[in-house]
Design goal:
single chain; alpha+beta; Aspartate Aminotransferase, domain 2; Aspartate Aminotransferase, domain 1; four-stranded mixed β-sheet; four-stranded antiparallel β-sheet; 10 strands; globular; pyridoxal phosphate binding; PyrdxlP-dep_Trfase_major
């Protein structure tokens, strides 16, 4: 998997005693070159990817890169788990790895794109994996409320999901404009269709310390250490979620607090260097 990944997955892997191996990345995401090298040196059985609006870096992988990953995975007989959690926020959808490579299982959830309380997940799998997945789910004894499933089916069948997603896209678009204006002098990565911002902190500003400072001011951010897989050196970055605040005013206040904390640190460092 990527050297930076969704923090919840790290916890789940640890509970299941699954060893996570970070694979080098570039500006597009996971590198086919490094994946090939790792496969030759490690007993890799599968890879996990968020190709669309990656959490936390916000990157989206090109179709060409997906094809390259598919070729390497087939070469080494790898199972690909493709997480499309944010995919439907994008206006221009690239082919999924599931459509490109027949060794891919595509997973998704409605909790991010429709409603946080709608805890229904989906799995799209090639036929060759179907029985194993069914057996695993049966043995886990995981059940979703029938009411939630019925609600989701109704939302999909009546095309209501399109209205909800379009409304959420508009909210994200407006909030991202606010963030762009306030963070214009900051070093940020973001996807205009997504609700996440990956903000690089100034040199010598520990991201964990910054998270604590923000929390003391009533602002929740997540430091890069939460997302690091393996022994990679910690990046001095934080992840922001622009849809977490209840309204735009709360978002503005939170972003201004972040900017003020960064500027205060820069001024302090500048004074120390002069002395």
């Amino acid at each position: 998997m990527d050297p930076l990944i969704y923090a919840g997955l790290k916890t789940s892997a640890n509970m299941c005693k699954i060893k996570l191996i970070p694979i080098g990345r570039d500006k597009e995401g996971m590198s086919p070159k490094y994946l090939d090298i790792i496969c030759k040196n490690e007993k890799l059985t599968g890879i996990y990817l968020i190709n669309d609006i990656h959490n936390p870096t916000t990157k989206t992988m090109s179709e060409k890169r997906r094809e390259e990953i598919g070729i390497i995975s087939k070469k080494h007989n790898l199972l690909i788990i493709e997480d499309g959690i944010h995919r439907l926020f994008l206006d221009n959808l690239t082919k999924t790895l599931y459509e490109i490579s027949d060794n891919t299982i595509h997973i998704a959830s409605m909790s991010k794109i429709i409603c946080p309380g709608l805890r229904v997940g989906m799995i799209v799998t090639p036929k060759k994996y179907k029985k194993e997945i069914q057996l695993a789910l049966y043995n886990m004894n995981v059940m979703v409320s029938n009411l939630q499933i019925e609600a989701l089916c109704s939302i999909i069948n009546n095309q209501v999901y399109k209205l909800i997603i379009n409304e959420r896209k508009e909210i994200i678009k407006n909030r991202m404009k606010i963030a762009e204006n306030i963070l214009k002098k900051s070093n940020c990565n973001y996807n205009k269709g997504g609700n996440l911002i990956w903000l690089k902190l100034p040199n010598n500003f520990n991201s964990r310390d910054f998270e604590v400072l923000c929390k003391e001011k009533g602002v929740q951010v997540y430091c890069s250490k939460r997302f690091v897989v393996g022994n990679e050196d910690e990046l001095s970055s934080i992840r922001l979620c622009i849809t977490a605040p209840h309204n735009e005013e709360e978002l503005k206040n939170g972003l201004n607090i972040i900017v003020n904390l960064i500027n205060s640190h820069i001024n302090k460092e500048s004074k120390l260097s002069k002395n």
